[in-house]
Each structure stands twice: as structure tokens, then as C-alpha cells.
Amino acid sequence: MTKSNLLKSHPLNSPFAKAPIVRLQGQPVLLFTQQHSSLLQALEAKKVRIFSECRSGFCGACKTRIISGSVSYLTEPLAELNADECLPCCCIPSEDLELDLSPEGAAVVTYSCGNRRAQTPSTRKTGNLKAVPQQEVVED
Ligand code: FES
């Protein structure tokens, strides 16, 4: 099965499936959607620092520990893996996923609360403790 066929036939591509949330050490960093071609590409798009070389499941350079959740492989990984590890260059999340990667420098998805925009996601940068200012809510 080709990579694009696997992506099309993946259960998460059902119109009723929930896009998996990818967390790094507890911090929600991204919602994995059909826009992403692999977990590595999605993490790099969010400025997550992750080492890679072959980008095809051969070298093991991108090997990452899974804290919770599971992945599906786009191509058979050739690098040796433990049961709690994945190769982000050639897999996609099968469900919500938490990885043992530092969220430092990545845009983390947060939710403001205590106002009418409680469900409006915003982002903040981690690592420098400077929060991106959230919009003020003006009461009528
Ligand atoms: S970069 Fe080589 S296995 Fe992922």
C-alpha cells in the first residue's frame, strides 16, 4: 500500500473521526490532520526540535519515546524499536499521542477560561515564559 493510500484509508480520515492531539510532556502542541504527511513533518511545522537524518524509517535518528497513545506506520520501519518508541518520520498518530519530547520553543495550544471566549484556542511560546497576549474581552 502506498503512503498516500494508507493516509486515505486510515480510520482517522473518516468524517466522524476526531483528529488526534499530540502532546509533548503534557503540553498539547498540535492537532494531527490530513494536512500533515507524517508525525515528523507535523512536529517540524510546529517548530519542535527533533533530530532526523534519513526520514524514511531506516537510520533510527528520529526515534522518540511514546508516553501514551499509538501510531500507524506509513512504511515498515527498518530501525530497531522498543515497544514504547516510534519513528516520527514514517508514522502518523492513531489516537491522541503523548511523546517524550521537549515542547520548548514550540507553539503550545492553550485555552483561555473564565470568559465568553473560553473555547477559543490561542497559542503561547514555551521556553521563554513570555505569553502571547490574548485578546481582551469587553463586556457589554
Ligand atoms: S530520520 Fe531516520 S528513521 Fe527517522
TrEMBL record:
Region of interest (Disordered), ranges: 117-140
Top-rank taxon: Bacteria
Domain 2Fe-2S ferredoxin-type: 26-93
Keywords annotated in UniProt: Ubiquinone
Repeat listed as a keyword: no
Stored Pfam families: Fer2 (PF00111)
Zinc-finger in keyword set: no
CDD domains: fer2 (cd00207)
Ranges of compositional bias, category Polar residues: 117-126
Name of protein: 2Fe-2S ferredoxin-like protein
Lineage, broadest ranks: Bacteria, Pseudomonadati, Pseudomonadota, Gammaproteobacteria, Alteromonadales
